[in-house]
Each structure stands twice: as C-alpha cells, then as structure tokens.
Design goal:
Elements: H1 2-6, E1 8-10, H2 14-32, H3 47-74, H4 81-84, H5 88-99, H6 111-139, H7 145-148, H8 153-188, H9 192-198, E2 200-202
Antiparallel strand pairs: 1-2
Length: 203
C-alpha cells in the first residue's frame, strides 16, 4: 500500500475537487427541478417549491463559476488556465492522437479536456445569465429585475428560448465530458473519477 501511494502524486487540490462535485450537484438540481420536465411532480409538489430549488441551484452555479474564474488565475498549478488552455491546433492534434490510441498522458488536463472546460464554463455562464434574465423578465425577481421587469412577451419568449438552448447545449457537453473521461481512463489505464475524488494520480 505504501509503495502504491509513493508512486502517486497530488494533482487536484481540495477546493478544485469541491468545486467539481458541487457544480455537478447544482447542475443536476437545476435540471431536475424544471417544472416542464416533471409535470407529474406538480401534483405532489408545489410549483413554487420546484421554482425555489431551480433558482437557488442557479445562484449556486453562478457563485461556483466566479470561484472557478478566480481559482483559474491564483490556484495551484493544475487548476490554472495557463496549465491547460492550449492553441486550437494543439488541441486538434491531440484529438487525432486520441482517436488513434496514441495520445500522450498528461498529469493535469490534456488539451482536449482543457478545451472542454473552457467551453463548459462559457456555456454555463450563458445558461446562468439567460436564466437570471428570464427570472427578471418573467417573474420580476432577481438581480436583473430592475432592467427587465417590463419586458414584453416577445422578449420573454426569446430569453426563454436562449436559456433552454444554452441548458441543452451544456447537458450535451456534460455527456461529452463523461465520454471523454471514460475514453481517457481506458487509454491510459487509470481511474480519472477516482483521481477527482482523491486528488491523486499515478506519477
């Protein structure tokens, strides 16, 4: 056991791991609290309760995104954007190597994983901003209510469409991220989910 631990090094810091799993939980809470998804739940739970869960999950995601932006500049080495944000050409070359099972192993995020993180953060940001806009325009509540409380039906429909598209695109990215984790775990014969739980990877 000691020999195995000696061959491992710490990669993911505790705050980054907490961010990762809390973001996953918050996104799931926001997704599953959409009233339109579970109309049968409306008979058992009040629509107001589902709305409260959805709104507070959105606020949690917003706070987590702000933290990740901050941590991407001041966090430990493997948490910083400078460690995993690569040029598009380098990312495409890595993806080609992945498909041919010849991709090199990275202790931190590989170029494809880094690109996925950036796109996920941007997509989540659009989801949150459009959600806050919809909350302000449709309900007259939230930090954007002062600007959007008098919005007409046309604007509300446009904001709602944007929010739904951003949410579904984010969900698609999450699925892609999970597939990438499985692929890389098989390619390099290491459990990446376990690494995000323990913070340690094979040296």
């Amino acid at each position: 056991m000691r020999a195995m631990k000696a061959k491992e090094i710490k990669v993911w810091d505790p705050l980054l791991r907490l961010f990762h799993w809390t973001l996953l939980g918050s996104f799931c809470a926001a997704w599953f609290s959409q009233g339109e998804l579970f109309e049968s739940l409306q008979d058992r739970l009040s629509g107001e309760l589902l709305q409260e869960v959805h709104v507070w999950a959105g606020y949690a995601i917003a706070a987590l995104l702000l933290f990740r932006l901050f941590w991407g500049f001041v966090g430990p080495r493997y948490a910083r954007f400078s460690d995993f944000v690569r040029r598009p050409g380098e990312t495409l070359a890595y993806l080609k190597a992945v498909l041919s099972w010849r991709a090199p192993r990275h202790l931190g995020h590989n170029p494809a994983g880094g690109a996925m993180i950036v796109i996920l953060l941007l997509s989540l940001s659009l989801t949150i901003v459009s959600g806050l806009a919809l909350y302000g325009a449709d309900k007259g509540l939230g930090p954007l209510a002062g600007w959007l409380a008098d919005a007409g039906e046309g604007m509300i429909d446009a904001i709602k469409e944007t929010h739904e598209l951003a949410t579904n695109f984010t969900l698609l990215l999450v699925v892609g991220h999970l597939l990438g984790v499985v692929w890389e775990s098989l390619l390099h014969r290491e459990n990446l989910v376990r690494a995000m739980l323990t913070g340690r990877k094979r040296a």
